[in-house]
Amino acid sequence: MTPDWPELDLTRRSGAGGSDGRGASASNQNFHAALARSGPRWLQPAEFDVSHTLVEPAAPVPGLLDRGVEPAGGIIVPVLGDDRLEVLACMLEVRHDIVRAMGAFLSEAERRRAEWLKSERDRRRFIACRGQLRQVLASRLGIAPSDVELEYGQLGKPHLSHRMPSRNLRFSVSRSEDVAVIALSTGQEVGVDIEAIRPVPEADEIAALCFSASDYESYAALGPDDRLAGFFRRWTRLEAISKGLGCGLGHPGSSDDKDWGVRSFIPKTGYLGCVVVRK
With b meaning 16 or more CB within 10 Å and e meaning fewer, what string describes 126-146? Predict the structure, then answer.
């Protein structure tokens, strides 16, 4: 997951985690470093049982896609949804004229954030992600994208300003490589995470440090062919809950899923996501 706001960086704010209490911060950094080194392995949706969840939600979520969608650049595609939850996927590799148009309604702070990014590709993807998030929020609020005002929690979790028409709308956003996902919920805290599926040589070590005792036991019991998917299912759930809480990995309660409805989904072939909603 690539955070879209500088204040909430889970690789820096992670504290103790896992069953042995040795801490999640180093393993989180190792995980993202490993992703940067590894070449992608484009798994097909059939390799995931997306109907299975590690923690079943209080009520089934209809509309869960059992195949990865292929959203075109600049097009927002629904992934799943019901009366209280909506998850949308969007591509970040969009035409330059679309990026320029989206950049026009970013806030001054968001423009400065984009300018700080060294890579032109990263700047373009950041603008596309924030621009499409603003478009989605604006459509729900009945205002222009440039009028969407965001505020940030103590650890950087974004939320709608108290001046917005509906403060009851909660959202979470995550991006990985060229795909972003936006989760929306009415009245309940929500968190979402997405990861591009690629080999992680340090997966077993990271799992031992970050996963709960029960999660690590079930992960360790998986066969070699199921390990990669099993790792990412647990990792995305862990990050989604942390984002729902607005804290870093290793924060007290960040690995406690009993209060959350959890759903895994495939936003696009080669990616795995997880969304959580507080029960």
Answer: bbbbbbbbbbbbbebbeeebe
